[in-house]
Amino acid sequence: MTEIVDAWMQLPNSAYLLNPMFDSLRRWPTAWRAVAKDNPDITHDEALQTFREQGVTRAIASAWWGPGGQMITNDEVAAAVNAHPGYLVGVASVDINRPMEAVRELRRCVKQFGFKGLRVLPWLWGLPPDDRRYYPLYAECVELDITFCLQVGHAGPMRPSEPGRPIPYLDNVAHEFPELRIVGGHIGFPWVNEMISLMMKHSNVYVDTSAYKASRFPPELVAYMVGSGKHKVMFGTNYPMLTPAECLKDIQALGLGEDALSLFHAGNARRAFKLKD
User: Whole-prediction pTM value?
Assistant: First the structure.
């Protein structure tokens, strides 16, 4: 059986699926629109059954916390992780406007629930990742030996995209926290070459392909995956935006080769998130 780890997904609830912030995403003919219309009260078990049926052997699920509050709570994710041991991996989300509360909440999620990472979305907060409000969390991630995740590239929702530009913002962070493992989600388009340059420069910077079908991978990213970047790029869906089947379709057509494909499917995520068997 092929091992496949989804490095970026959400276990949706109706508040998340139907939030007006995502109106732009529901315009597109994606799984998000279908689930929001037909099954907005989808259960975690139903969502994960889809993942199992479509070949995913482990999923990394994140909570969602923005300036308006929590949409998918850390406790909600923790309950799902507890219900699916060994299959689901939790990633925390926190209120970066309250630094000490955020650090304490992150510590709770890691020590009590066993979460493997923290995710903050720069476009959601309107703050690039080198803003001072992130820095206590970077230090805590290093101390806890967990991974920091963020979106790189343009914002899908109708918010400014500049906070997602890799250079200079993420480059500054990687310089100041060289021990911090960083996973940039959503490829980094339209700044793909900037993201590739960061991965070439910084040993602890990775990217995942969530929110993109294989047929839409930029040629420069595919070339990097085949060559020197085969240890740096990992699979992701951004479910409920896309399903695993949609993202995995046409992957063979990229001609990655057996070694690079295995690393893309699972090996790189296992290393970046320090996942055990």
Answer: 0.96
